[in-house]
Amino acid sequence: MTWLARMILHKEDLARRHISDTYAWHRVVWDCFPGRPDANRDFLLRLDWVNDCCRVYVLSMTEPIRPSWCLPEAWGLKGVAPSFLQHSIYGFDLLANPTRMVHVFDANGQRRKNGRRLALLHEDEQRRWLTAKAEQHGFRLEENAPLGIDEIGTLPFRRKQSTGTHIGVRFRGMLRVIDRKLFTEAFHCGIGTAKAFGFGMLLLQPIS
């Protein structure tokens, strides 16, 4: 069983919790999984702003519990049965961080082990990115359905002693499953980079 939790928090709640960037969300969501101080992250999260409220979605194979700082009326939890992922066509909503890897070279012209990622800022690049990710993750975009691409802006984060930003892009459309195993892995593990910062969760609505 997979679990999907939803929390609705107002700006005043965020101020009390000192939540001011996407990595701060990553830290506080761990409160949904107490007693696991050394565990690796095995959940996805997504942040949707609606006026002065933030809807926080958490998808996990481990059942989350309501943190003490989240009011009961602001908490929702439902199980996602394996049969949910057995449909052929879904409507989808994906908040992602489309990027491309750029190689970095040292003073001697040798390529360094770790490159850096550049955000894809143009809609045609973002569309190609999603098409490639779809093929990689066992589905394809339905050509006869419109694809919505909306940039939600620059989202800051602070991690240890460094700061940075991510570009968030919201994709909405229809997909067809072509490889069930890869598709199921994408649902559980997410798509693209910056998953710890609230990107990559694939929200689905079965069509057929």
Descriptive report:
This protein is an alpha+beta fold and 208 residues long. It folds into two domains: 2-80, Crispr-associated protein, domain 1 (Alpha-Beta Plaits, 2-Layer Sandwich); 84-206, Crispr-associated protein, domain 2 (Alpha-Beta Plaits), CATH 3.30.70. The protein is 18% helix and 40% strand. The strands form three sheets. Strands 5, 8, 9, 10 and 11 form a five-stranded antiparallel beta sheet that branches. Strands 2-3-1-4 form a four-stranded antiparallel beta sheet. Strand 2 and strand 3 (53-60) form a beta hairpin. The longest helix is centred in the middle third of the chain and has 14 residues, at 123-136. Pfam families: CRISPR_assoc (PF08798). InterPro entries: CRISPR-assoc_prot_Cse3. It comes from Desulfobulbus oralis. This is Type I-E CRISPR-associated protein Cas6/Cse3/CasE.
Number of domains: 2
- Roughly what fraction of the amino acids lie in strands? 35-45%
Please bin the fraction of helical residues: 10-25%
Count of individual beta strands: 11
CATH architecture of the largest domain: 2-Layer Sandwich
Topology order in helix (H) and strand (E) letters: EHHEEEEEEHEEEHE
So how many helices? 4
Mean pLDDT: 88
CATH superfamily of the largest domain, by name, is Crispr-associated protein, domain 2
Organism: Desulfobulbus oralis
InterPro entries: CRISPR-assoc_prot_Cse3
Protein name: Type I-E CRISPR-associated protein Cas6/Cse3/CasE
Pfam families: CRISPR_assoc (PF08798)
